[in-house]
Amino acid sequence: MKTFIQKLGKSLMGPLSIIVAAGLLLGLASTLQNPNVFGNILANVEFVNNFVSLINTLAGSLFGLLPILFCMSVAQGMSKEDKEVATFASIIGFVLFHATIRFLLQMNGITAETTSIEYLVSQGMNVLEATQQNAAYDVVMGIFTYRMSIFGGIIVGLWTAMIHNKFHTTQLPTAFSFFSGKRFVPIMMVVTIPFLALGMYFIWPLFNMVINGFGDLLASVGAFGTFIYGFLERLLIPTGLHHILNQLIRFTPIGGTAMIDGVQVSGALNIFNQLLMQANPNMDVMREATRFLTQGTHPFMVFGLPAACYAMYKTALPKNRGKIKGMLLAAALTSFFTGITEPIEFAFFFISPLLWLFHAVMAGLSFLINTLLGVCIGNAGGGLIDLVLFGVLRGPETKWIINVAIGIAYAAIYFFVFKWAILKFNIKTPGREDENDEVDNTEEVTELGASIMKALGGKENIVEIDNCISRLRLILKDTSLVDENLLKKTGSLGIIKINETNIQVVYGAKVEKAAAELKRAVKSNA
After folding, report:
1. CB neighbour list of residue 438: distance below 8 Å, 6 or more residues apart
2. Are 377 and 292 within 8 A, CB to CB?
3. 3-state secondary structure of 447
4. Domain containing 517: what range?
């Protein structure tokens, strides 16, 4: 189960880079439309208006593709090998899944026409009831179906991975050998997906009630709901489960729902991006969405954690400061500009539960304070780029000045709390290792992949290699064979042993290189 959850969390990250990039483009387009920035100078410039329309069209299309993007990403991430075959099969499965649901709905007289607001009102419903009934259905890739959003994609992706892992090596009798192996997977998808769709036809209305219930519960506790989210999101980082929590908040009704231009939109990030496409968005609705987005992360990502790095540098043993200066500076700048915080967090998470808890509480308070003060800064990054593009450049209505003021206070709090705690409890943050524990991180490793492979117990101990935005995610035969000191010499910032076979190695921004080099080393020793 731990392995499954870890892989699922990583798989859900696949579409996020595309959505974040689309969000940045929307932020730029929104800035060009904002009269608080350029006044009315650009209002009648045809090139600018055409550019904004093009960005809105492209972004809108990407958001419409979210369900199938999640489907493909989950199928690819959860399959063990021949991942391209699983991805191909997932597209077939996704289309057939919704086509089957459309068929079942039509058998019961449920179509786009009979669920339209106009038709339902004509049948005696009031507008509110008709709108709620209409919102239960959607058109996905031209197919009328349940409004399942990313859940439909995740369900089909998981089903595809299961079918793929079970049948991709199946050998049929000689007469049918052409359909064996990889070719058998899409065939099995065609055969089995109607049964999945039939089950979801009956289950989804109940499941949808549960999802909406969680969303209503989160909304019912008001601003405190944002504290719960911020606290849990940081607390779960070492487990990888924060990815799942984030995607649920960003793309499902748990993160809120809103009627925009007569269409129900679910998920905090979806709502924010849809509103960015409007010249004059409803700021009250936008604030409801952004309370779960980056406005709560800026104070600790842009200000707090870099200050914590400075505290760790100041409290390091004088003779070690030169060795750890570069590492801490790189980690601080990464958090400051991009919002990638794990290289810093893994420097203290496991050696000091006290600082870990402090950080989680401060994250929750950041979300809570920004919500109470009406800050309105969105997107899903969290670094300076998001703060400038979605806060500063969108004008004073975002209340970005308040966000920065909170951040400055966070910088001071993080610095003094970290410095006090490190000295008071003699926490072994980087540069404070005892002589017999000290690791020479400046040692030159000429063959990175070979060194990592050796530290992991050799090629024979490595079963599967994968990575996310900052960590190697590995399946080994025996995690007890891992040499943590040798891993540190390769640039590792820490390890997380999930169980006897699953381990994660934190490399921060260097993880892509580490993964590529390790795969090359394993392949060359095959």
Report:
1. 320
2. no
3. coil
4. 448-524
336-359 residue pLDDT tens: 887 878 778 877 876 788 898 999
Question: What 3-state DSSP class applies to 44?
Answer: coil
Q: Which residues contact 188 (CB under 8 A, 6 or more apart)?
A: 163, 167
Eight-class DSSP state of 40? T
Do 193 and 91 touch, CB atoms closer than 8 A?
A: no
Q: What is the pTM of this model?
A: 0.65
3-state secondary structure of 273: helix
Q: Which two tokens stand for residue 404?
A: 């920065």
Same domain, 418 and 478: no
Cβ–Cβ < 8 Å for 255, 248: yes
C-alpha 507/C-alpha 487 separation (Å) is 10
Instruction: Return the H-helix or E-strand segment holding 144.
Output: strand 143-146
What letter would DSSP give residue 252?
S
Is 43 among the domain residues?
A: no
Instruction: Quickly state the pLDDT bin for 432 (edges 50, 70, 90).
Output: confident
In a shared domain, residues 360 and 214:
no
376 is catalytic: no
Domain boundary (190, 219, 248) is at 219
Tell me if residue 107 falls in helix, strand or coil. helix
User: 329 and 418: one domain?
Assistant: yes
Question: Which residues fall within 8 angstroms of residue 455, CB to CB, at 6 or more apart?
Answer: 482, 483, 484, 486, 487, 490
DSSP state of 297: T
475 forms beta bridges with 464, 502
Closest Cα to residue 290, out of 316, 271, 317, 309?
Answer: 271
Dihedral angle over CA of 60, 63, 68, 74, nearest 10: 150
Marked catalytic residue, from 71, 309, 376, 468: 468
| pLDDT score of 208 more than 80 | no
